[in-house]
Design brief:
The chain is an alpha/beta fold and 254 residues long. It has one domain: Divalent-metal-dependent TIM barrel enzymes (TIM Barrel, Alpha-Beta Barrel), CATH 3.20.20. Helices cover 41% and strands 15% of the residues. The chain contains 9 helices and 8 strands. Strands 3-2-1-8-7-6-5-4 form an 8-stranded parallel beta sheet. Helix 4 links the parallel strand 4 and strand 5. Helix 3 packs parallel to helix 4. The model has no long low-confidence stretch (mean pLDDT 97).
């Protein structure tokens, strides 16, 4: 197994590597020094554990029909509760959730509805020691009309919920598209960030020299902060998948 510095605890999103059979992929990830895999359902958790990995971020409800609308709360909250309970039983750390698309709703009303919804599951998350992370996504290229597309808007929701178990999933790729100013934003909001994703811009492909984000200083800013969570690689490889992932792991091992 590769020996990494360990200042950044790295993972990879399973969906980006679906062409690689699960057992082969998990064995390779473990050999690279990764500690976990994002967005894996419970059916594959026994296989994860066989390879000494954890699920670093567990899926829950729909990305487009989320917490910003009251009519979606029953379905979303039931799925969030189920994911919290499953995570707690398995000893895994995070469950992802989503604002949903705007569909004409104002930022003020959408935020208020997210706060109402998250307050209903924050207590369970606290008791079960699982962190809910609201994912930031870009609404310019990949997820048209998605509401949680700015750091300040989403962090404000977390502050209003007021739970140490409700935080932001800061996706570096998505926020490069929407905001830029990555390092300053990360430093100013690090107490409200519960998980990170990577990806190269433009294209959401490799995080190498073919794209515009310079990842080593971003990783150093995270490593030098109080952050003790995980960084999940969520890019779609255009070359040999495992070679691309291995290069990304080395690049981020600051």
């Amino acid at each position: 197994m590769a020996t990494l510095k360990g200042r950044i605890r790295q993972a990879a999103s399973r969906w980006c590597y679906n062409k690689v059979p699960a057992a082969e992929f998990y064995a390779a990830c473990r050999e690279m020094g990764l500690v976990g895999i994002d967005l894996v359902g419970p059916a594959e958790w026994p296989l994860l554990k066989e390879h000494g990995l954890i699920c670093t971020c567990t899926p829950s409800h729909s990305l487009t029909k989320g917490l910003n609308r009251r009519e979606h709360h029953e379905v979303c909250l039931n799925q969030i509760r189920a994911s919290i309970e499953a995570n707690a039983e398995a000893g895994f750390p995070n469950v992802v959730c989503f604002s949903g698309n705007r569909e004409g709703i104002s930022d003020e009303e959408g935020a208020a509805n997210c706060v109402v919804g998250l307050k209903q599951v924050a207590g369970l998350a606290e008791r079960r020691k699982v962190t809910l992370v609201i994912e930031l996504l870009n609404s310019k290229v990949n997820h048209k009309d998605y509401q949680a597309d700015r750091t300040a808007w989403t962090v404000d929701i977390c502050k209003r919920v007021g739970s140490p178990r409700v935080k932001v999933l800061y996706d570096i790729y998505h926020m490069q598209i929407m905001e830029g100013d990555l390092i300053r934003t990360i430093r100013e909001n690090i107490d409200w960030i519960g998980h990170f994703h990577t990806g190269g811009n433009p294209g959401r492909n490799e995080i190498d020299q073919t794209q515009e984000i310079c990842y080593p200083p971003v990783m150093r800013a995270i490593a030098e902060s109080t952050y003790d969570g995980y960084v999940g690689h969520e890019f779609v490889p255009t070359r040999d998948a495992l070679t691309s992932l291995r290069e990304a792991v080395a690049l981020c091992d600051v």
